[in-house]
Write a structure and sequence with these properties.
The structure holds two protein chains of two kinds.
Chain A (H helix, E strand, L loop, with lengths): L14 H4 L29 H6 L21 H15 L1 H8 L12 H6 L6 H16 L1 H6 L10 H11 L7 H5 L6 H14 L5 H13 L7 H19 L14 E4 L3 H4 L3 H15 L3 E2 L16 H18 L3 E4 L4 H8 L1 H5 L25 E3 H10 L15 E4 L2 H5 L5 H10 L30 H22 L3 E4 L2 H14 L4 E3 L1 H8 L31
Parallel strand pairs in A: 1-2, 1-3, 3-4, 5-6, 6-7
Chain B lengths: L1 H22 L3 H29 L30 H14 L1 H4 L2 E5 L5 E5 L2 H20 L9 H10 L11 H19 L1 H6 L2 H22 L5 H12 L11 H16 L7 H4 L30 H14 L8
Antiparallel strand pairs in B: 1-2
Helix pairs in contact in B: 1-9, 1-11, 2-11, 5-6, 5-7, 7-9, 9-11
Classes of the chains: A mainly alpha, B mainly alpha.
């Protein structure tokens, strides 16, 4: 791992070095093995200005490599009081602290452990980092027997270890699937991050988007006119490909549907193509919808901060739906966004009694399963359109793509939206192959960059965490010639691009609605010769090359 | 170290029982006071722990979904692995508690050459856990013959079925063999897997040794250390009828068995063994994935500071107007 490259660049890491991981645990016991903050495995701390803007604790410049983290004087009391408060507020936390039997079923289920071999990335041991403190200070056995009962005192090195390892968990919930008691490391990580936030420990890759989102309505900090510009560029590109000019309704009162998507779709390829896909679909079916600049973020990095922060950011969606007077809400392709929309939004900011049960104006289908939240996933909406034959689709326009589908963690394990995306994909392309069964559906592997870890200074961990997914992709690449990995998550589209380039070079990443749009035959379109990426959609006849005269 | 200490602790319990009943004559202490104290600790402790968990609310509905959701009519939902109603939840919990559904999913990571990591099925833990729990249950139920008069038909039947092989006098119980085999397996995998040993605590080995001790002394009592079964039953009936007696002729070895059981009961509420109660309360398993159908209410749903639309428009009004985006206040 050397050369002209820096630790935040992919080229710095040689696959053979990363693959030389050693699953043998260290000689020293885990309580006696301190954290090594080596570059590439941790994330820069939150900048003071963002903490100040959000009224978060202890804003100050600091670095994990500093000896002194400038914690508040009474940091220990704050953390212990924080644990006590959360034990009383969350049965999940209390149960998960108490009933683990350390059977080890979860041990080899975490992508960071698979790709890195650090024993503290085994979900059981990650939880023990917090559980040991809980035992020491909150259980009878721990108070009496201390270390013998698996307890240990809360010290600064313990806090450092928490910071390192609870920002090496992507809250993907894969371990929870295998746990005989359903112990969910995501829940434990969420609690630990809340506790860390109480003393001013968080990462900038999470807290800057949170701050941006609070102010501008989206993680990227795109201001209203900027969003309009962005969508106008997309409309230009769509026109170039199809000859059709799509409308961009923004903050329109009286629209039927408010559409909310992760802002990642506005920023960078390949998410942008997915966003164009939404716009083309809505145009083609004549949906009376609107974008919102205020609620211009479906994602919610509050989920990676605290329950309170989830609620603070999520509140905008219902508030905006109410202000604009829409009938219901539709959400785009995103992963953790759907964890929040599905499992938290209604409880936190509902009831949405001012909205109607989502009903497709095209097919008449009432989406009864969303009768309380009034918000449906665009893939549910599109699957229904296709089922009713409302879309004219030409899958051959995706014929150059050999597609596989990556189930994103949260839609799979916090929702169970497994068949809808597959139904849509099968209808818009001709070549679809699944990855091995133990790496998809509820057993899907994380991209390695979720929960606020997808930043370049964390590159070593991203590549390691992406290894299981990368290997599964490479498997279908070699076996079936797969060249396109489809995922309905903005973080996937950003981070799996890096993962695939590294572990399965040649496979590109796309969203589902990019494929939908490419297959969509629009009324009045010009002849489609290129897809949204401006790549030819059919094999280009190779011009015979004649040897020139000498 | 954790292994050694746990083993020593269990041996110490046995030694104490031997000294108390084989050397000294403290049979009343070991045959009456300790069992009563242990049962009281177990009952009170178990209830205390359950009530403690139940007192904390479930603010959010956070099931881990392991199958297709219920959405469009033409997509069949997975009612057991992703239940959307109470019937489904009962089914899911029954599968989890009776069949260890989640352990059945287990996969085993294997490194192959180059970049290949493969995930084959890993059913050993599932088998070991099932065999242990069910043979323990059978053994427990069989023991009710000491505490009941007349012995219920089911218990007597189970006794006969369990001794089905008709090997030895008295016949060897299949459940005893399975129980000891499963416990040995569970210990061996914990001890010899470097990964498991690394995160195993003394409190993981202690109950294993305790159970091995209980099963081992039980088998020895049945087949080698012949104690008068009638006397043992008299003692047991005395305990359950609150008229404790210590009949003469009960071998001191029996008190080793009884004291280990008492230790297990008293230790239970303070330990990971409480997973027996906790598994019923796990919010990722015992809630229906009907989040978008039925609103879940958080009892402490506290107000938070938000950035309102009005504040937002105040920040960006000029830019919005310049871009032709509608505003509330011109």
């Amino acid at each position: 791992m050397a050369g002209a490259h820096k630790f935040d660049e992919v080229e710095y890491y040689k696959p053979e070095d990363l693959l030389a991981m050693d699953y043998r645990p260290p000689e020293t016991g885990w309580m006696d093995t301190p954290v090594d903050f080596r570059p590439g495995t941790w994330i820069y701390p939150g900048k003071p200005k963002h903490l100040e803007y959000l009224d978060l604790a202890n804003p100050r410049p600091w670095s994990p490599t500093d000896e002194d983290w400038k914690l508040p004087k009474n940091w220990k009391e704050i953390i212990l009081a924080g644990i006590k408060e959360r034990l009383a507020k969350y049965r999940s936390f209390k149960i998960f602290m108490d009933i683990c039997v350390r059977c080890g079923a979860c041990a080899d289920k975490c992508h960071f452990y698979v790709g890195g071999g650090d024993p503290k990335n085994m979900p059981v041991l990650r939880a023990e980092l917090l559980r040991s403190v809980y035992r020491n200070d909150f259980t009878t056995a721990g108070k009496i027997l201390g270390r013998l009962a698996g307890g240990r005192e809360l010290t600064v090195p313990v806090i450092k270890e928490w910071f390192y390892y609870f920002f090496q968990c992507t809250e993907c919930r894969r371990c929870s699937v295998f746990c005989p008691y359903g112990i969910d490391t995501a829940e434990i990580t969420m609690m630990a991050r809340e506790l860390l936030n109480l003393v001013g420990l968080n990462v900038n890759w999470v807290i800057e988007p949170v701050s941006n989102c609070f102010r501008t309505g989206n993680h990227l900090g795109i201001q209203p006119h900027g969003l309009k510009d962005t969508l106008t560029f997309f409309a230009d590109d769509i026109e170039e490909v199809t000859g059709i000019r799509v409308k961009i309704p923004m903050n329109q009162k009286g629209a039927d549907v408010l559409f909310v998507t992760p802002s990642g779709d506005f920023l960078a390829d390949p998410g942008t193509y997915t966003c164009m896909g939404y716009m083309m679909l809505f145009h083609e079916i004549g949906l009376n919808y609107t974008w919102s600049t205020y609620a211009s973020e479906g994602g919610n990095f509050g989920l990676f901060t605290s329950h309170e922060m989830i609620k603070r950011l999520n509140a905008k969606i219902y508030a905006e739906a109410k202000r604009l007077g829409v009938k219901w809400i539709m959400g785009g392709e995103c992963g953790h966004m759907w964890r929040v929309l599905h499992q938290y939004m209604d409880t936190m900011n509902g009831p949405a009694d001012f909205l109607e049960v989502p009903t497709s104006p095209i097919t008449g289908t009432r989406f009864e399963h969303a009768r309380s939240t009034k918000m449906i996933h665009i893939v549910e909406f599109t699957a229904d359109l296709i089922k009713h034959g409302k879309l004219k689709l030409d899958p051959s326009q995706n014929d150059l793509l050999k597609v596989t589908f990556h189930d994103s963690c949260n839609p799979a394990r916090a929702m169970g939206i497994l068949e809808e995306p597959r139904y849509v994909i099968r209808n818009v392309c001709s070549h679809f192959k699944e990855m091995p069964i133990n790496t998809i559906r509820e057993k899907t592997f994380c991209c390695g960059g979720g929960a606020g870890l997808g930043t370049d200074e964390n590159m070593e961990m991203r590549l390691r965490g992406g290894l299981p997914r990368g290997n599964a992709v490479r498997h279908v690449q070699q076996k079936h010639g797969v060249n396109r990995l489809v995922a309905m998550c903005a973080i996937d589209r950003a981070t799996l691009t890096t993962v695939c380039d590294y572990w399965a070079p040649g496979v590109k990443v796309a969203g589902i609605h990019e494929l939908v749009a490419n297959a969509l035959v629009m009324k009045g379109q010009k002849e489609r010769t290129v897809n949204l990426r401006l790549e030819p959609i059919h094999e280009v006849e190779e011009q015979p090359i004649y040897e020139g005269e000498e | 170290m954790n292994v050694f200490l746990s083993l020593v602790a269990v041996l110490a319990v046995m030694l104490a029982a031997y000294v108390g009943t084989g050397v000294l004559d403290a049979k009343f202490l070991f045959g009456t006071i300790l069992p009563y104290a242990a049962i009281a600790t177990f009952l009170i402790g178990f209830i205390y722990r359950i009530v403690g968990w139940a007192k904390s609310p479930v603010p959010f509905r956070i099931p881990t979904t392991c199958g297709q959701q219920k959405s469009l009519e033409w997509i069949p939902p997975d009612r057991l692995d992703n239940p959307h109603d109470t019937t489904g939840v009962i089914g899911r919990m029954a599968l989890e508690i009776l069949c260890f559904r989640s352990l059945f999913r287990d996969t085993k990571m294997e490194r192959h050459e180059e970049a290949t990591v493969v995930y084959g099925p890993g059913l050993w833990l599932w088998i070991g856990a099932l065999v242990f729990h069910y043979s323990f249950l059978v053994t427990f139920v069989r023991h009710l013959r000491f505490f009941t008069e007349p012995v219920p038909y089911v218990v007597a039947l189970l006794q006969r079925v369990d001794g089905f092989f008709q090997v030895g006098v008295p016949p060897v119980m299949a459940s005893n063999l399975f129980l000891l085999a499963a416990l040995t397996f569970l210990f061996a995998r914990r001890f010899w897997s470097p990964r498991l040993r690394y995160f195993s605590l003394a409190s993981d080995y202690f109950p294993l040794f305790l159970l091995i001790g209980i099963a081992g002394t039980g088998v020895l009592l049945r087949h080698f250390v012949r104690t008068d079964i009638v006397n043992v039953k008299e003692l047991a009936m005395g305990l359950v009828s609150f008229k404790p007696v210590i009949p003469k002729g009960v071998h001191w070895f029996f008190f080793l068995h009884l004291t280990l059981v008492a230790t297990l009961l008293a230790y239970f509420p303070f330990s990971k063994l409480m997973h027996m109660g906790g598994v019923f309360l796990s919010p990722t398993r015992n809630l229906a994935n009907n989040n978008r159908m039925v609103r879940h209410v958080n009892p402490w749903n506290a107000p938070v500071k938000v950035h309102t639309y009005e504040e937002y428009e105040d920040d960006f009004r000029d830019k919005m107007k310049a871009a032709g985006i509608p505003v509330e206040k011109e």
